[in-house]
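Q: Predict the assembly, please.
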Amino acid sequence: MLIYTINRILHMIPVLFVLTVVVFLFMQMLPGDVIDTLIGDEEAEDPETRALLMKEYGLDQPIYVQYGVWIGKVFQGDFGKSLITRRPVSLELFESIPATVYLAIVGISLSILIAVPLGSIAAVKRNTPTDYAAQVTSLIGISIPEFWFAIMCVLLFSLYLGWLPSSGYMSPFEDLGQSIKYLILPAAAVGFRQAAYTTRLTRSSMLDEMNKEYVDTARSLGFSEKKVIYKYILRNAMIPTITISGLQLANLLGGTVVLETIFAWPGIGQAIYLAIIDRDYPLIQAGILVLGIIVVVVNLLVDLLYRVLNPRVALN
Amino acid sequence: MSQIHLDGGGRKVGEIHVPTFSEHFLRYKVAFVDAVQELYKSKTAFIGGLMLVSLVIVLLGTPWLTEYDPTKPNYTAFLNPPNAEHIMGTDRYGRDIFSRVLWGGRRLVAIAIAAVVFGMAIGIPYGVLSGYYGGLADSVSMRVVDGLLAFPGILLYLLIVTLAREYHLEGFWNDLILVFALGFAFFPEVARLSRSSVLIEKQKEYVEASNTVGEASLYIALRQILPNCMSPLIVNATVRLGYVILIIAALSFLGLGTPPPTPDWGSDLSSAREHMETHPLLAVFPGLAICYTVLAFNLFGDGLRDILDPRLSDR
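A: Predicted assembly structure:
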């Protein structure tokens, strides 16, 4: 296990390298002079000032040196300053992470709460109308664009029925009741699509487990069908299901850009969107890099968790 | 018709049947009928197939189905509800929504297909060669793929599209960048998938036989191994088409796709939000169009998987 963990962490290095190179090249490929982009003031007109700035930002160095300097700063958490607010980018991002994490965790939990029972019922009642209904629902679920689903929810629950606010955010530590009101629609939009995926996944891993020999053994020992399903099949089927939902977190974090924008949710997705609209390049660069790193780290943790939960995998 | 092979001494050593045109035609006809019969075996594939065929017919027939110009404003018909003249109503510039949905669909589906084809055109050779040759080149190229896969969801597109915006590309060039961005983001997945099928296929005896006979390795990889790995790739591409359409719609919903007058499901949805309280139907039609198209591709892809991979058909 220790060797595997070390191996897996070493494996992360090239992945992170590619990630940082792509994000770094993005800045390099912007048209025009980086000085103009970074400064944007009249003072950059003066050739002497330019030369000075070039030196200060290390732009007179070859590109791999520039990359090295940049990555060194990234390691220290220094992503430069926002072009709009002039505050350090790391600070801007750091403030937006809790809202995203809050939304993601509630969304994923919601999806598991819906999907696991639905997927299990579909698997147990395979090839019955119940199963078909569950399958069709989940297929429709993954075909509906999440932003459209979100708009339709706003239309129904806030414009027509007036039950919930159409957008906004409140920290749960401030006022839990209000916070939950703001949370319901975004979390439903996040959880809905996720639930559709997880239902399909639960169903197919349940079916995988059902065909295994230990199930026959359990039945032949005279265990009740309920016990066989809940205690053995479901429990084993949960291992791949939970793992893959963890991996789905990557998709979910990417999707937050759209959903957070619709619901004016002050998370990292909305921060990236606003940065794109404002052409705040250091913030775009850092935001995408941070989300990428989160995904890589979560994948690693999920992978390790899978091994802990399922020691048989390690033997293969 | 047949082609007779002679050895050096003029003796007949073999005869190869060369099919005539009508025989060719018959063969294709049989293949087509077979395909439809196979498709019929899976209900999902059949329904998805029907939905796709009707989509293609409607999109190809767009110029005859609607006489309204999707971009020309009509100042006498703002925000009309659905009626006999405009079956889906009109938007805030008096443009016919039905016409915008159809013309937008043509563009969207064309871009999606181009993007998926582009992604496969890079990804397949990349994955096949990497898996076939193995070794250091394989490890390095797969790490690149891993790195690109670490970009969650639409972020890689956002990066490319933002970059493209700075170069002020318009019209055709803007669409081309979209195709490039979507295809480029698809290629790591294709590369990984084709590589893993090649690794399995490589162990088989016919590859060993070809090696012994002395076929060129490039020929073995691309002409012999690749055709045997196609079915998972086709399934993947079909499902991906639906996903790509969702991504394009999301990008233009965020205002990063095509600039306004061009009909586009995503940007139409986003501008419909401004009139949502008074004209909710504006936001319904483009959304339904996206759902229909994506569902058609997903159903077809799902059914295709059942047909092509009989091990799963039981599920």
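The first strand of chain B starts at residue 2 and ends at 6. Chain B touches chain A through 44 residues (CB under 8 Å).
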